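Progress against Task 2.4 (sequence-to-structure conversion) is shown through the following example record, which the project officer requested during the mid-term review.
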Amino acid sequence: MPANRSTLLRRGLAAVAALPLLTLAACGYGSDAKDDSSNQKVAAGAKKIDGLDSVKIGYFGNLTHGTALVGVNKGYFQKALGATKATYQVFNAGPSEIEALNSGSIDIGWIGPSPSINGYTKSAGKNLRIIGGSASGGVKLVVNPDKIKSVKDVKGKRIATPQLGNTQDVALLNWASEQGWKVDAESGKGDISVIRTDNKVTPDAYKAGSIDGAWVPEPTASKLVAEGAKVLFDEADLWPDKKFVITNIIVSQKFLDAHPKAVEAVLKASVDANKYINANPDEAKAAANAQLKVDSGKELPADVLDPAWKSIQFTNDPLASTLNTEAEYAVKAGLLEDPLLKGIYDLTLLNKVLAAAGESPVDDAGLGVK
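Structure tokens generated for the chain above:
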């Protein structure tokens, strides 16, 4: 591993640590977590699972975490856990959720691929496992149509991503490289200017003219479109079968070892939630939006909610091969040392749940536990 790559990694992590928590991106790093014990209805006569009083679940207030939003709103988690109370923390970004997982503040979480990889590699594979999939897609390159009319027009422009080294940042850097453009990953300077901007303020930055476009997840992409931006392309179009992991489910290794029945119950709730979402897209969309209002005090307007929801695929498949590809992109960009991902997945319980539901098993792309 070249020394300059290690230096970039250290600098990137230092830059992440130095950013104020309140300005961090919803799909990037840092967090503003809160307890949420809404919609908790324990059935009469229900029993505790594994003798646990509670299972602590984390997720983001993003539509790409729709499985969790619907699972909370429709009571799937509580139903599956019986008399064991489901409690929740809502995060703005990955690293604080990883920190919460490591400290035991949460047991299971919905999170993006880059924080999962970073959390796994930083702990030398000891602190977490990916135990299931949740969502694919929901990421777009949206641009100012007056300045950018085609791919070639992106060169020389200012493109926002949520944060240095986050999933969308890595995707943009890799795409730019494939166009033959040179960009310094750390500074974001080069043939395009990568502007790391909190998803919450990206629409304001676009309106102010300080960025020319953004490679962002939903609902930020649709918020920009509502401000007059145009979708240049959907990231899904760059992937085989138009599928790539945007959200997966992780668990503390300690919790998985000690409480497999509780983990299985949460996975059953996740599978049930995804089944409901795919069978009832309009009702599920409304449930997700209702939970966003509970969590943040504000729901999304229809002109943002509808196109954003439509672009996300909810799936139990963790799309493991695409996580490995995303890790390769981060290494190529110089933002990550070549990770050893063997063992990051443990899909045993998920496949047990899927078999019981009469569904096909999912694959770990050779990255499962040894």
